[in-house]
Amino acid sequence: MRAIGIDHVVLRVSDLDIATHFYGTVLGCRLERRQNDIGMVQLRAGGALLDLVAIDGPLGRRGGPAPAPAGCNMDHLCLRIAGFEPEQARSELAAHGIAADAAAIRYGAAGDGLSIYLRAPDGNGVELRG
Predict the structure, then answer these.
(1) pLDDT tens, 87-120?
(2) Per the structure, how many domains does the chain have?
(3) CA distance 128 to 100
(4) Nearest to 10 by CA among 60, 56, 57, 58
């Protein structure tokens, strides 16, 4: 067996509309499909999907308590951003009321590169990189 990439990441979220706005509008993931009957929105991030599951929906209730700042359901998600310019990204995030740390060189799937960290509305960590 040999993994060749990420197919999708599933995040349990407290407010599906706020999370959809954050990952879709703020971070630029494209709406792929909405499944209201199970409480899930799927967004496309390049070749991968980001599935947002409402904690009060049929799928979300199976996962237990809601994510919280003191106990998130994952450490962080790293998204590759086309034409990534750290300071421009920080400025765009600030316009949405979202703070991000200073850019630093970190190692990822494509090697060393500049990235920034921020927190999603549910407290999950998000890393953005070029």
Answers:
(1) 999 999 999 999 999 999 998 878 899 999 999 9
(2) 1
(3) 10
(4) 60
